[in-house]
Specification:
Layout lengths: L5 E4 L8 H20 L5 H25 L1 E4 L3 E5 L4 E5 L3 E8 L10 E7 L4 E8 L6 H16 L7 H34 L1
Antiparallel strand pairs: 1-2, 2-3, 3-4, 5-6, 6-7
Length: about 190
């Protein structure tokens, strides 16, 4: 493509994330079990809790499929997900990178694209991946080449920004592990109670 004005949106159908459905069923099943075993439990609260859990899983997924897109223009790059819209101007963009997903869980894509800013923060680009684009790596290379003209500088690595990226990645993995551990402890308390 020769111009910078581009929009990447859902082109291929997405498969159902069975693990997300399984987690919702397990949580809903636990609520049903707890309510049926407790004679003092309110049936109304059961219905409300189950409805909130199902809506919390379904609504963001539907919104993401309808709203999600990546918009590239002369001013910068914009990522729209289910509820937020994030924009980076070209002067704030440090790098555009494709990263191999650990298990391909993000919409069946093996490669996911992120924009890194000068502070080391990253922003995921919705639907800019190998599942939605037939020639993903060529499109990424072309986007980097065309956007370099608007950035006013070449794509060069800076050690201080790379250190910030590594530090943020490490912290993100640490908080992810803390989150998983907290869920495991909560489930253990529920099961043991």
């Amino acid at each position: 493509m020769s111009g910078i004005e581009r929009e990447y949106r859902r082109r291929r159908t997405l498969s159902v994330s069975w693990w997300q459905i399984a987690v919702t069923v397990v949580i809903g099943g636990n609520i049903v079990l707890q309510v049926t075993m407790n004679p003092y439990a309110s049936r109304r609260w059961y219905v409300i809790a189950l409805a909130v859990i199902v809506l919390a899983r379904v609504v963001p997924a539907v919104l993401y499929r309808q709203r999600g897109r990546t918009i590239v223009g002369a001013q910068g790059i914009t990522a729209r997900d289910a509820v937020r819209t994030n924009t980076r101007t070209w002067h704030d963009v440090y790098d555009i990178r494709a990263e191999l997903s650990a298990n391909g869980r993000i919409e069946r894509a093996r490669w996911t694209t992120y924009v890194y800013d000068n502070d080391g923060r990253r922003m995921r680009l919705p639907y800019f991946d190998d599942w939605q684009l037939p020639d993903f790596h060529a499109e990424l290379a072309d986007l980097r080449a065309v956007s370099a003209l608007h950035r006013g500088m070449a794509w060069e690595l800076r050690s201080e920004t790379e250190d910030l990226i590594r530090r943020r990645t490490r912290n993100s993995k640490l908080w992810g592990a803390v989150y998983v551990a907290a869920i495991v402890v909560c489930v253990a308390f529920v099961v043991m109670a």
